[in-house]
Input
Amino acid sequence: MTPSHADVPVSPLQLAIRSACISVENQFERRINRLRFSLSMLAAALAFYALGYAEVVPLAKAPWYAHVPLWAAVAAVAAFGILQIVRRLHDLERSGGLFWALAVPFWAFWKMTSLFPNLWYVWLLLCLWPIKLTLALFFKAGAEALNS
Amino acid sequence: MTPPAATEREWQESRKHPPGFRARRGLNWFTVGLLYAAYYTCRCNFRFAAPGMQEEFGFSITQISDIWVWFSVAYGTGQLVNGLFCDRIGGKASMLLGAAGTIAVNLVFGFGSFAGNFSTFAGLWLLNGYLQAAGTPGMVKINAAWFNREERGVFSGIFGFMIQSGQVAISRLAPLLLAGFAIAAFVVEPGRWRLLFIVPPVFVALVAVLLAVFAAESPEDAGYPGAIHDDVDNSSGTRVPVLDAFKFVFSNPLVWFYAVAYGATGAVRHSSDQLSILYFQQVLGFNMKTDIPAIAVSTLALIPMVAVAGSVLSGWVSDRFFRGHRYPVAMVLYFMESAVLAAAAAVLAHKLVGPTTGGILLGCLFLVLIAITANSTHSIVGAAAPMDIGGKKMAGFASGVIDSFQYYGSALSLFITGRVLDATQATHGWNFWFIIMTGFAALGGFSMLALLLRQKGKIAAMRIVVASLVVAVVATTVVGTSNYRRIVAENAERAQAASLAQPQDDATAAPDLPALPESTPE
Output
């Protein structure tokens, strides 16, 4: 390792950001077992369904600003879901970064095949590995005591 | 495929960081990357304005290409100059200055183009090119300080993602603006291309404020001293005198191999990006002025997404299996790219691409495949390699030199393509678009092959590759120029013959016209 940057004063704002980052990272470092993960995912799915229903039925004709709290709620539920996936990946002794390996193919290949709906099986083929990983998240025993 | 033990150890070491560091780096990357993405909305807006400008001002493909040529020349030169200054003033200041400049120029382009002619547009876009060139060195310099060598390949994929998200943003925004809209009593008619230069600068301004508040120049500034290892000695700080950066980078042979290859990347990437809208309109028969079809919008949005997947994967492979060496992966990608382009040229020559379902599918598929390969090389050669060469200290200028070649390559490619397409479009359609890009992609592949041989100590073999490359480039230039002149002369003769034949045709085609006085019988 080479000597690094000369000492520089760190601003109070940067110190506050560092503290916030440490607390966020601690949240992601934890682990959950498959049962808690499945229940969390079920809760997230129900919350998404309820929010989607609110978007298309009661708020269908509301002005755009009335949807803003709903969008914030969607973002919060998405963040909760991502957190659970990362914790469960840790429980399986895998990197949390694999979340992207799940999300990107599902979404990107779906975009591709939605252009040509007759090619749905191409999506299935391209997403074989993410599908396998998803099944592992729900069913494979991890390091937590309840898994075994 | 199992990496050697030393590679595995370095890989594991590079991934150990103090608490909160990864989240802090993510936030830093997000703001820096978002501003870089926003830069792209103020650059790629031009291609969506091209059909409208063609209609309003009667510009030819050559003139549209030339406006981008001026941009590219200014951008390339700006990279050299701004890269040097970036190492002096810091990456954050460099990015903020560039953002302020590009906002101003885009607004002038949007509001001032009512009195426009070719020189006005070319001049303004040239200025925009120079100002946008402050972005890459700034971004690369900041991120060189935040990533270890073995992490930079994946980072370069993320860099690609940010670029592409800027392209997706403008690909989504432009059709909305061009389709026309109404907000209360304010009604915008369809086809108002000037809005493309007025709305995106607003986004750049918002993101620049975020960067100013949240981004830190280096981990040390954010309270993480010594978190990142660097191959370059930074004991005297990470800002260096201009002359030192100049000497260090220009005397490094690696820079020049990467620069030539990156020129090839630019030639393909910008040619396929900037002319794709005209290709959609003229080859696939889409209406790209006011009513852009869903398949075109989806392809333009899909291209960046699959390109990102390719960028991240190639970056990860170079980190994981080649100890952060980029050239072996880049070489394979360049040769794959030339194969795809050659196949596209062959398919187009057999008239399999056109305004039919199968033709549109093939036409869009080739654009997607080209984007994957071109953007993968763009990420690992343009973002990762300069950081490896320059370290925290001189990444700005190393990136500036290498990236400048991307834009010189782009200028050269578009200069040639615009003229060749104007000359050959009537007889060969858009075939030469792919053929020209194939040549550039092969140039990139051989340049990386030469670097591979040099790094393996096979100097004689490297010299043979370089000499063959020079001979091939000179021969192609001589033969191509001579053929181009012949075709232009033939076209001129044909046009002259057609204009001479026109009055006779008119006379025979219109028997009810009054006869000329001298031919009237007495």
Q: What stands out?
A: The first helix of chain B runs from residue 5 to 14. Chain B is about 75% helix and 0% strand. Chain B touches chain A through 42 residues (CB under 8 Å).
